[in-house]
Amino acid sequence: MDRFIDTELARLTTENMAEEMAQTGTKMYQFKGVWFADTNVQEEVLLRMPEWEARSDDVYVVSYPKAGTTWVQEIMFLAMNNADVERTKTGHTMLRIPYMEANIKRPNVARLTTENMAEEMAQTGTKMYQFDGVWFADTNVQEEVLLRMPEWEARSEDVYIVSYPKAGTTWAQEIMFLAMNNADVERTKTGHTMLRIPYIEANIKKPNFRYSSPQKILLMLWYMLKMMFRMLWFCMKEGKVPVGISPLSMSKILPSPRLLKSHLPFQLLPPDIMKKKAKIIYVARNPKDLAVSFYNFHKWMPMLPKYSSWDKYFDDFMAGKLCYGHWYEHYLGFWNRRHEENILFIKYEDMKKDHKAAVTQICEFLGYNYSEEMLDTITEHSSFSSMKKNPMTNPDSLFPKGKTPGKEDISFMRKGKVGDWRNYFTDEQNKALDETCKEKLEGTGLQFDF
Ligand code: PPS
Q: Does residue 386's CB lie within 6 angstroms of at least one atom of ligand 1?
């Protein structure tokens, strides 16, 4: 019963659960005449209870809530474990003794589990909030994660892809992954790009993975198995049990050199990254195409606020009231540090103009001197058409069609062009953004091809 396995994982990984549960509206419903809270026990789980396979050596603690369950289960655990108190330290009682029918909502599993994400996200009201003057969507980046970013331990061998959303992150990160993996395309098949390259500050709610082919399921299982071994190794080494696979704990499990993604502006990026001089590749894109791409992404991504029109969205774009704030503040935070030895600042338009030159530049910056043939392999694998048709690089495969209301036929890998803004901007909007560019970028040396 995969559902129960999911539940188990969910339970192993929930840092901010209590708070989130508190924010969630709970619906009471009746099943066979008995009342349940949908946030605790869901109907589909009750319907599948007859499928539960018991074993003759199972032991169950059964009770009406608050009758003394936790007390009795602890006695039972010790009874079944030779009265060895040390074994109780392997995990919290709620983790050691699975609560079989509970399928708590809002598991905060950094995107490895749970069904129905798209659907549920769509039902979830997204709240925008400001952190240090920068806007965020609470369904995407939670305040408690931002508050803990200073705890992030960077390593000097780390490599970060950093960008304002929609600037070409996924493209650049795929090139970087191949650069760091000897141009071995086979290695990209170990998992979706969004899994291979953890997005450090995202604490995505309700992830959804539906795998349509046995091959993908096997790859995913292989990836999870590897993660479990790493976690086990981490637990043994550290003598600790991670109670939440938050990005922070993930960071400790991953082997070096780690390739990680962030959309955080410079001032919110974990300071340890610069202190350790970990490499950062920052990608920027002309703000007009950026705006259009982000607009379409708001339709595509269920967790982001929905806009009834381009014009309404454009106002928020101009006001910096989108997740990650003002594009120019974000860009300048890195542009002004582009001469630091650990930072490479690249532009989407330059990557489009000469893809192979960009691949070469990225490889060289990361310290790899590859043959023409290897550079060609990376260029070919990271072309727009290859990435669009590859389910391991096209994020569409993570959000199946028809599951995301409003997504309709929009693809994450939408057009991948320079100049699509002409199909959206009115003359007035064009003028307004030109003025912003002039006001904010003049004298900085930062310019774009439109
Ligand atoms: S995200 O969600 O912030 O990570 O998005 P991001 O990857 O930064 O940006 C998505 C846009 O990049 C385009 N893209 C590419 N363009 C050219 N070549 C390749 N290989 C490529 N891969 C992704 C993608 O299509 C989005 O741009 P638009 O303009 O919406 O098509």
A: no
What is the residue with the minimal CA distance to atom 14 of ligand 1? 416
| Tens digits of residue pLDDT in 264-278 | 999 999 999 999 999
In angstroms, what is the span from residue 300 Cα to ligand 1's centroid? 13
Least confident residue range of 165-179, 189-203, 227-241, 308-322: 227-241
- Is the confidence at residue 33, as pLDDT, over 80? yes
Provide the angle, in degrees to the nearest 10, between the axes of the packed helices 310-319 and 427-441.
10
Entry pTM: 0.69
Asked if residue 170 has its Cβ within 6 Å of ligand 1, the reply is yes
* Ligand 1 pocket, residue 414 CB under 6 Å: yes
| Planar angle of CA 127, 133, 136, nearest 5 degrees | 30
Q: How far apart are alpha carbons 244 and 16 in whole angstroms? A: 9
Rounded to the nearest 5°, which phi and psi values hold at 400? -60, 145
How do 28-31 and 34-37 pair as beta strands? antiparallel
Residue 384, ligand 1, Cβ within 6 A = yes
| Domains assigned to the chain | 2-96 (no CATH), 117-441 (3.40.50.300)
Average pLDDT on 59-78 reads 93
**Ligand 1 pocket: which of 285, 349, 382, 412 to mutate (most atoms <8 Å of CB)?**
412
Identify any residues that bridge with 160 across adjacent strands, giving them in sequence order.
260, 280
Pairing of strands 134-137, 128-131: antiparallel
Helix axis angle for 427-441 and 287-300, nearest 10°, is 120
Structure confidence at residue 317 (pLDDT): 96
Please provide residue 171's backbone torsions phi and psi, each rounded to the nearest 5 degrees: -65, -55
Q: What is the CA radius of gyration of the chain?
A: 24
pLDDT at 108 (0 to 100): 29
Q: Of ligand 1's atoms, which has the minimum distance to the CA of residue 263? A: 3
Enzyme catalytic residues: 263
